[in-house]
Amino acid sequence: MSEYALVGDIGGTNARLALVRPGSVELESIRTLACADYANLDEACLAYLAEVGVAAVDRACLAFACPVQGEQIRMTNNHWAFSRTEMQQRLGLEQFRLLNDFTAMALGMLHVRDDELVAVGGGESLAGSPRLVIGPGTGLGVSALVPAGSDWVPLSTEGGHVSFAPTDEVEVAVWRQLREQFGRVSVERILCGQGLVNLYRALAGYRALPAQFSEPAEITTAGLAGDALARETLSRFCRILGEQAGDAVLTIGARGGVYLCGGILPRIRDFFLASAFREGFEAKGRFVDYLRSVPVWLCTADYPGLLGAAAGLDNPLAGSHKRS
């Protein structure tokens, strides 16, 4: 057995890779590679191993921002595509485990430090209950941790693609504009990087104002600087995320709590913590007390997906693997 195993968190833009020793989730030699610089996964992994001075590994657990159940894997937001069996052979692996990126994110929540979790409102975790993991980034990831004895089962879901359900006249107007553009309106059409742009443009139309910005970072920067329309966009974004997270808690009975992840929220941390997220989260009519009792944490860890991939190496309840 080689000294290290390879773990990775592969998104649409970047591939984050690291090494772990057997039985450990401590990440070593972390690197971030631009997916566009490599023809496919094997080229990136081999370049990484060469850079960190490791000749070969015989085990890998990689998390991908796409479905991973089949033999053929095709990335949703970049050009990488491969056969699991052929990729395992190219990398010379005895064990090749693949996880959905938010399945790995869920596992990672079990290993982040306490000081990397920021409480959002009150509530107390109910022992023995599932925990929701949700986060806006390039897309909207949704997973959950379900207790199974002394272990946890991470769920692989496509919960970011459920239908958007507007809750007031402004959201109805947003829904109408997005329906004209996309037909069906999923929550991911709003709760992700490009979704922030969609929301901004829809609010601009509703307010009969010019849409000055076309990139998520521009909207975020302008909103934090006080631009009225961009600020309304950020505020509405946070509230809709709360509404969606509350719905998901009711669906899976996640009274153990909610982990908020993804790349967007840490960048607007102070704004988010002062936002109407919790108001939207708890606004469930007869179930307001149910939601009020559920704790929510904002994850500020740098590499939770990599931690989850490391944990997934030896978790028999996570993902799937193939042996030669």
Automatic annotation (TrEMBL):
Catalytic reaction list: D-glucose + ATP = D-glucose 6-phosphate + ADP + H(+)
Chief site of localization: cytoplasm
Entry superkingdom: Bacteria
InterPro entries, alphabetized: ATPase_NBD, Bacterial_glucokinase, Glucokinase
Keyword annotations of the record: ATP-binding, Cytoplasm, Glycolysis, Kinase, Nucleotide-binding, Transferase
Residues the entry annotates as binding ATP: 8-13
EC numbers for this chain: 2.7.1.2
PANTHER family: GLUCOKINASE
Matches recorded under NCBIfam families: glk, PRK00292.1-2, PRK12408.1
Family from the record: Belongs to the bacterial glucokinase family.
Protein name, UniProt field: Glucokinase
Taxonomic lineage: Bacteria, Pseudomonadati, Pseudomonadota, Gammaproteobacteria, Oceanospirillales
Gene that encodes it: glk
